[in-house]
Design brief:
Blueprint lengths: L2 H19 L15 H17 L7 H13 L6 H8 L3 H4 L2 H15 L7 H5 L4 H6 L4 H13 L6 H5 L1 H11 L5 H7 L2 H12 L12 H12 L2 H14 L26 H11 L4 E8 L2 E8 L3 H6 L4 H6 L2 E3 L17 E5 L10 E3 L4 H10 L7 E6 L5 E4 L3 E2 L3 E7 L10 E3 L1 E2 L5 E7 L5 H9 L3 E2 L3 E6 L5 E2 L4 E5 L5 E6 L5 E6 L6 E3 L1 H6 L1 E4 L6 E11 L2 E12 L15 E5 L5 H5 L4 E5 L5 E9 L7 E8 L4 H13 L2 H9 L2 E7 L5 E7 L5 E8 L2 E8 L8 E5 L8 E2 L2 H6 L1 E2 L5 E7 L2 E7 L22 H16 L1 E2 L2 H23 L1 H13 L1 H10 L8 H15 L3 H16 L7 E5 L2 E5 L7 H13 L5 H4 L3 H10 L1 H17 L18
Parallel strand pairs: 2-11, 8-13, 16-22, 35-36
Antiparallel strand pairs: 1-2, 1-7, 2-4, 3-5, 6-7, 6-9, 9-12, 10-12, 14-17, 15-16, 17-20, 18-19, 18-21, 21-22, 23-24, 25-26, 25-27, 27-28, 29-30, 30-33, 31-32, 31-34, 34-35, 37-38
Helix pairs in contact: 3-6, 9-15, 11-13, 16-19, 26-27, 26-34, 27-28, 28-29, 29-30, 29-35, 30-31, 30-35, 31-32, 32-35
């Protein structure tokens, strides 16, 4: 068939398909062309024959749309246009990328075709069309199958009938997915349409979502990988248990059901959080024979994402701080891989919120203030289990016999009947060991009363049958939503009956006397996820005892290698799902813990495509592996290997295997970030070749500027033909910055050194007027230098020189020429005397001198504190001396709870103080942190230059105190690495 015949056939096919789908409202995808494999091969040949001799024709536009969408279906995150041009000889000479986009617009308008949406579609204005119309490109099929498998227990008829809600649920669960899959998740309606079609394949109505032949093709490709096939079949088995009445692309009506993922009100969220039981629990880990460590165990918070997709950014991308713990904040995504245990060094106060996030939402903060607090004291009871760990009991009731630990916060626990001394490695509490014999004496019973404890025994309930996922020994058990909980009930009081009800329901089960004494077993139906209460009452002559068994039902969480925080091998990665670029450029933190002195085998592999085997290296590390240990080993064994340097730029994914032998194996996989601009670097015979890969689709395309190390603020242009085809980098090296619209991509190449005189170059900067706009422009330039990719170890050293020079000029603009001279003198002389002279230059105003005096006195002490504590102390000093007034607070009220917040802006002394410290230490952490307030913060700081000078003094003083550290890609000065 020629292209004219193909055009006629495709027109007829898509006209019928769009007409059949018109009433349903579902969009049509170009991949639903219905062509068989051989027919596609014939169409491809006709397309290539045409473009080999002439330009693409509007008369055959549907053939070109089909050709382009097939390239999108096979797209795996590599360069779309480079692959398109290689497979289509003549396109580079006669084709036009914009013409392809226009044809997809025609398809959308004529056949009600899908329209790409989301931030990624704004960056990839052309290739977003063939990729969206490819429905589910092959490299994303495995990700979707796995996500559906992990969510299969959350399926319900209501959910499957609403592809939008299903798509929102999948999008919320994709917090740790690759950037490619997260781009797909930006369109939840399309994602839900695809997922519902796969899950309900063959059921009535599912054919209206996606053409059955196209769906069969996707399912067949999924079958090629056994694991993906098994994941999808398991998810389909869970989904097809429900009878689906109909499908609707419209959002669910307000108030429909309860607990849906669209619920976003504070009242609804607060209620659901209570049902999901996010309250942490305390436990005591034995340190020695008579000493304990206090741990706080947080449940897996990923279940919140099923209900509240809007929390994904905070929970997945912000680090968590636990009250009473020490050290750095927990890694991003840490609490989504639970349960997690955190060691406490100080007992939290009653008003302390146990968990906070560095970037928080007011609604989440309110909920955590309500649900994430310690239970009221001053007494806590822990039962020592058979595994040696003491678990918190919420009932404050002991059973005979039993072994317990009692903790109090008010007074020491003196010696007495049944108690003995024990110690807890946590400040602010007192502890004692409590042993209850089979028949407690009157003295022990009196002792229990003094301690605020009671004795249980007349009524007993316990998990029976299938073991519970967790059981605290007294009043609280956990099962999975796939279980049928079974509970044993017994009373030792003759003549008593047991009455049982669930969640306050009016239906009551009665257990007669003989069964109640022997012990009766009650099997419950599978319960929905949440917290349930089984009310139990023993009633008889002279007896009326009631109690409750808390039953917490959680959704099963699929096992993942290395995610068990309590295992012998534990690997922590921050961020939890890094990109290939973040791994290569060492912008991640990797820690590994195992038996001291043990060895951990590490293998890094780069997947360079199907044409060759993965490139990789193996090396050994000793436990414990700290972030600096990993970075040093990665630099030595991987980044400095020339063959791996070249393989990196061709690779689309990587795989790091941590092998602890008998301890277990942890595998970290990462894909290349899906970005519209990317530099490819090739090393050949002592030189570097640079090529810019531009997938933005803009006209006339990207522009490239070159900044040298000698003049880092004076850009020079680069000819388009050079960076399109690749060019050899001049010996001077420097920053090559590509820009297209709001998007930039930078790469720093090292210079070729001719001798020792080239080891250090003093950057020469342009003279600039003292205005906040000039400081603003320099800060943006600093961020571009800091965020650019580095190619070669010496690039880091040269970049540090550039960043320091640019930063000093910003501080000269903000702090004035006198400060510039004082800092230059301090750089030359260094030491204690230089710092004292610098302190005198902070201000010449009498009412501001206490600030410089306080910093001169305290900077050594401040150097021992974490950054957050330094910020707080500096803000207190600045507020008291500079008389910066705080704005009025904002109060959010819900029920009996008030959440007080302060405006985050340049008018807030706390915010302005942190702004000054970030500016003085590491401006790249300032620009994204301040956001739209950057210009206002600079203007405000220029009105109070003493604050900027004081912040700079503190930065340099802390750096002088702390030991010199190796160059850090995320910090210029020791002790000032910002989160």
């Amino acid at each position: 068939m020629n292209l004219e015949a193909w055009q006629a056939r495709l027109e007829g096919h898509f006209e019928l398909l769009s007409r059949a789908r018109r009433d349903s409202g579902w969009p049509v995808f170009a991949l639903e062309h219905g062509l068989a494999h051989q027919e596609l091969a014939d169409l491809d040949k006709a397309i290539r024959d045409q473009v080999a001799g002439s330009s693409p024709s509007d008369g055959y536009w549907l053939g070109w749309v089909t050709y382009a969408v097939e390239k999108g279906y096979r797209y795996a995150g590599d360069e779309y246009w480079q692959t398109f041009e290689r497979d289509t000889p003549g396109w580079e000479m006669r084709g036009d990328r914009g013409w392809i986009r226009h044809q997809f617009h025609r398809f959308r308008d004529r056949y009600a075709g899908a329209t790409p949406e989301g931030a990624w579609a704004n960056h990839f204005t052309i290739i977003c069309w063939p990729i969206t119309h490819a429905i589910l490109p092959r490299d994303l099929q495995r990700h979707l199958a796995r996500t559906l498998y992990e969510l299969r227990h959350a399926f319900s008829a209501d959910l499957l009938e609403s592809p939008l809600r299903l798509g929102e649920l999948i999008a919320a669960r994709s917090w740790d997915a690759t950037s490619r899959f997260q781009n797909l998740a930006q369109e939840p309606l399309f994602l839900g349409q695809i997922a519902a079609a796969l899950l309900l394949q063959g059921q009535q109505g599912s054919g209206s979502l996606i053409l059955p032949a196209t769906l069969d093709r996707i399912a067949l490709d999924l079958d090629h990988e056994r694991r993906a096939r098994d994941w999808l079949r398991a998810a389909q088995g869970s989904a097809q248990r429900f009878h689906i009445r109909g499908l609707s692309p419209l959002p669910p009506t307000v108030g429909r059901g309860r607990g849906g993922p669209h619920s976003s009100t504070v009242a609804g969220a607060r209620s659901l959080l209570g049902e999901l039981a996010i309250e942490p629990r305390l436990l005591l880990q034995p340190e020695s024979a008579n000493s304990w460590r206090v741990q706080l165990e947080f449940p897996d918070l990923s279940s919140l994402l099923n209900r509240f997709p809007g929390l994904r950014r905070v929970l997945g991308e912000s680090r968590g701080v636990v009250a009473g713990s020490s050290g750095a904040p927990r890694a991003r995504g840490y609490f989504l891989n639970g349960p997690q245990r955190v060691l406490l060094h100080q007992w939290p106060r009653p008003e302390d919120v146990l968990l906070r996030f560095e970037e928080n939402a007011p609604e989440l903060e309110m909920l955590l203030r309500t649900e994430c607090l310690l239970r009221p004291g001053p007494t806590w009871l822990f039962r020592i289990a058979s595994d040696g760990i003491a678990y918190e009991l919420r009932s404050l009731r002991v059973r005979a016999p039993g072994d317990y630990v009692v903790i109090r916060t008010d007074n020491p626990i003196g010696a007495g009947p049944g108690t003995s001394e024990t110690s807890v490695q946590c400040g602010g509490v007192h502890a004692a060991r409590l042993n209850i014999p089979t028949e407690p004496s009157p003295e022990i019973l009196d002792r229990l009363e003094v301690l605020g404890l009671g004795l249980a025994g007349l009524l007993e309930a316990w998990p029976a049958g299938l073991p519970a996922a967790a059981w605290d020994g007294e009043g609280r058990a956990e099962w999975l939503s796939t279980d049928r909980p079974c509970v044993g009930l017994r009373t030792n009081h003759p003549g008593a009956r047991i009455l049982v009800s669930l969640d306050g329901e009016p239906d009551v089960i009665e257990i007669e006397e003989q069964q109640a004494i022997r012990g009766a077993f009650l099997e419950l139906d599978a319960l929905p996820v949440g917290l349930h209460r089984l009310q139990v009452k023993a009633h008889g002559e002279g007896l009326d005892v009631a109690g409750a068994l808390e039953i917490l039902v959680r959704a099963p969480r699929p096992w993942r290698s290395g995610t068990n925080s309590h295992g012998a091998l534990f690997v922590s990665v921050d961020p939890p799902q890094p990109t290939l670029e973040e791994i290569w450029e060492e912008r991640i933190r990797i820690e590994a813990h195992g038996p001291a002195g043990g060895q951990l085998g590490c293998r890094v592999e780069l997947d360079v495509g199907c044409e060759s085997e993965p490139a990789g290296r193996s090396f050994q590390l000793a436990f414990p592996v700290r972030p600096q240990d990993w970075n040093a080993a990665f630099e030595k064994h991987i980044r400095q290997a020339r063959d791996l340097q070249n393989a990196y730029d061709r690779a689309q994914s990587s795989r790091i295997t941590f092998d602890g032998g008998d301890l277990g194996v942890f595998v970290l996989s990462a894909d290349r970030a899906f970005v519209p601009l990317r530099w490819r670097v090739e090393r050949r015979r002592g030189c570097q070749l640079l090529t810019l890969l531009d997938d933005t689709g803009t006209t006339p395309g990207a522009s490239v500027a070159h900044y040298s190390f000698k003049t880092p603020d004076a850009p020079g242009s680069v000819d388009r033909q050079d960076w399109v085809r690749g060019f050899e980098v001049p010996s001077e090296g420097g920053l090559y910055l590509a820009s297209s619209g709001d998007y930039t991509a930078g790469v720093i190449t090292p210079p070729v050194l001719a001798g020792f005189g080239d080891l250090q170059v003093r950057p020469q900067l342009q003279d600039r007027p003292r205005t906040s706009q000039q400081a603003h422009d320099l800060l943006l330039l600093i961020e571009r230098w800091a965020r650019a990719r580095m190619t070669g170890g010496f690039s880091l050293h040269r970049r540090a020189e550039v960043l320091e020079a640019l930063l000093r000029q910003v501080l000269a603009i903000v702090g004035g020429k006198a400060w510039e001279r004082a800092e230059e003198e301090a750089r030359r002389s260094k030491g204690e005397m230089a710092l004292q002279a610098l302190a005198r230059a902070i201000t010449n105003k009498a009412d501001e001198r206490p600030l410089s005096c306080a910093l001169t006195r305290d900077y050594r002490e401040l150097a021992t504190m974490p950054v957050s504590s330094r910020v707080a102390r500096f803000a207190d000093l600045a507020h008291g001396v500079l008389h910066i007034q705080s704005p009025p607070p904002t109060v959010i009220r819900h029920g009996e709870v008030n959440l007080v917040t302060w405006k985050r802006s340049s008018d807030n002394p706390r915010w302005l103080s942190e702004f000054a410290l970030r500016l003085a230490s590491w401006p790249p952490a300032l620009v994204p942190w301040s956001g739209e307030d950057l210009a206002a913060g600079l203007a405000r700081l220029m009105e109070a230059p003493s604050l900027a000078r004081a912040a700079r003094f503190l930065v340099l003083g802390v750096g002088e105190v702390l030991a010199p550290t190796p160059l850090d890609s995320e910090a210029l000065y020791p002790g000032w690495r910002w989160p």
